[in-house]
Design a protein that fits this description.
The chain is built from 13 helices and 7 strands. By secondary structure, the chain is α/β, with parallel strands linked by helices.
Length: 292
């Protein structure tokens, strides 16, 4: 995938021997084009590496990660290290670390942030796990990360827990920017150039951020965002964080609202909104807009 390919290329560019596996033929071809050896199976991957082997798993959370980690474990030996750099649930990472430890294999959960710019700019890495496997992989972490962008945050599960919270904060930040720029656009008589405002706020403002720079890029390309449908997907971390907040008794109204707004974006026509319109008509005779 995009992130895994960038990680492989950034490590290889630093002079570290890298072997890659991806079942998709086009991905394997891309590895080879980048000067990276590509193999045909997980067994071949393990056999191609010198001990102690470090294998970085970068696949979608859930069944895919479970299958890859399970498939790799039988080919590894004590002292080898598995790194899950995806967005797995932290409780799954704790379970996988315990199972790997029983076989003498290190397992690290590495929350990875940086998006499609990580290969060029460096990533932000949040690592959870025991100190020994961390020390084995630390050189790789430092190659991948920006200066100051790597931290061993705590025991197994803590890396993915930290990344889960990171992504929940991201939800709330993006929702705040989205609402603010919608409000700017609503005052049509002022004819405010939202792209220029976004660029302006990035210069010394207290709300400046990389997300704001990206907003400026998007708004300058297409001020009305006419080519984009307002459908916002998610990969689960916001939901996990909201549930964790309930379990821990921590109020997170901004994060929860951002999550609900994402879910609302996937509805073509909300039944709840229809009912609110109907109720306003019932008690106050307010006009109802009928479907065509």
């Amino acid at each position: 995938g995009r992130m895994g390919m960038q990680i492989a290329r950034r490590v290889a560019a630093a002079g570290v021997p890298v072997v890659g596996f991806d079942p998709a033929p086009h991905a394997a071809a891309s590895l080879r084009q980048g000067g990276i050896e590509a193999v045909a199976s997980l067994a071949d991957l393990a056999a191609s590496l010198a001990a102690p082997r470090v294998i970085w798993v970068m696949v979608p959370a859930g069944d895919a990660t479970e299958a890859v980690v399970g498939g790799l474990t039988s080919h590894l030996a004590p002292g080898d290290v598995l790194v899950d750099g995806g967005n797995s649930h932290f409780k799954d990472s704790m379970r996988r670390a315990a199972a790997a430890s029983g076989r003498g294999i290190g397992f690290l959960d590495c929350g990875t942030s940086g998006g499609i710019y990580g290969e060029r700019e460096g990533f932000c890495l949040m690592v959870g796990g025991n100190p020994q496997p961390v020390s084995t992989v630390e050189r790789i972490f430092r190659i991948l990360a920006q200066e100051g962008g790597y931290l061993h945050v705590g025991p197994s599960g803590s890396g993915h827990y930290t990344k889960m919270i990171h992504n929940a904060v991201e939800y709330a930040l993006m929702e705040a920017y989205g609402e603010g720029f919608e409000l700017l656009a609503a005052r049509r008589d002022f004819n405010i150039d939202a792209g220029k405002v976004a660029r302006l706020w990035g210069k010394g403002s207290v709300v400046r951020s990389w997300l704001l720079e990206l907003a400026a890029d998007a708004l300058e390309r297409d001020p009305g965002l006419g080519g984009i449908k307002g459908y916002v997907a998610d990969t689960g971390e916001g939901r996990w964080a909201a549930l964790e907040a309930i379990e821990q008794g921590v109020p997170v109204p901004g994060i929860q609202t951002a999550l609900m707004q994402r879910q609302r974006s996937r509805q073509d026509d909300s039944f709840s909104a229809k009912l609110v319109a109907a109720l306003r008509h019932e008690f106050g005779g307010h006009e109802v807009v009928h479907e065509k």
